[in-house]
Design a protein that fits this description.
42% helix; NADH Oxidase; 4-stranded antiparallel β-sheet; single chain
Length: 221
């Protein structure tokens, strides 16, 4: 696959085929992704790959806490306030996701069903949790995690796999540590679902938008 094709063609996958991803393919993916850049070649990332029974427990935990309305306590605080242009893009995307499923904003039951799908990781057969040491400089380590996670997603797309990067299911780190055997000296940053995309699902094919470079590029001469 041409690199620019991978960059433009990769998208967040929100429904997966019920087909396991071979462990050797996951290992190949992560072996290639380890060449991602990091500050001073520190490579602060650690990954926990969940499949099978552990993944089933993870999904069950996520849905239970979501249903109970438990207050999230993520290791990295999710922002509650965004500048107006960013908030507008987010709200437009949410509207597009609902429209693609035929869900009206006032249809609370249908929205909750979608959120349950999110909690169950859209049926993904594999979950990759990205962590960093708690005593590392989070500002740099977060950037490094972003770099390698993007690389993982591009490589996965090239191999016919799909991914979705989300923070919504790392909101309960204490429970996640027990399920995934993650030690207390690591911060859980983000998760990446991995699997074979369902091509017939509307959320895997709706038209996406990106800002024109005139909105975020400043030419200085």
């Amino acid at each position: 696959m041409e690199f620019v094709t991978a960059v433009k063609g990769r998208r967040s996958i929100r429904k997966y085929k019920q087909v396991d991803v071979p462990q050797n393919l996951i290992a190949e993916l992560l072996t290639e992704a380890r060449w991602s850049p990091s500050w001073g070649n520190t490579q602060p990332w650690e990954f926990y790959v969940l499949t099978g029974e552990r993944l089933a427990r993870y999904k069950e935990m996520s849905l239970e806490k979501q249903a109970a309305g438990e207050t999230p306590a993520p290791d990295v605080i999710m922002p509650a306030i965004w500048p107006a242009p960013l908030k507008a893009r987010y709200e437009e995307t949410v509207g597009t996701l609902l429209t693609a499923q035929g869900i009206k904003r006032e249809d609370k039951a249908a929205r909750n069903k979608y959120y349950q799908e999110m909690g169950s990781l859209f049926g993904a057969p594999c979950l990759i949790l990205a962590c960093i040491p708690q005593d590392s400089a989070v500002e740099y380590a977060m950037l490094d995690v972003g770099l390698i996670v993007q690389t993982i997603c591009l490589l996965a797309h090239d191999k016919g796999l799909g991914t979705c990067i989300m923070a919504s299911t790392v909101l309960y780190p204490a429970a996640i540590r027990k399920i995934a055997s993650i030690t207390d000296d690591k911060s859980i940053i983000v998760r990446v679902t991995l699997g074979y995309p369902d091509p017939d699902f509307p959320l895997n094919s709706f038209d996406r938008k990106r800002a024109e470079i005139s909105e975020f590029v400043h030419w200085v001469e």
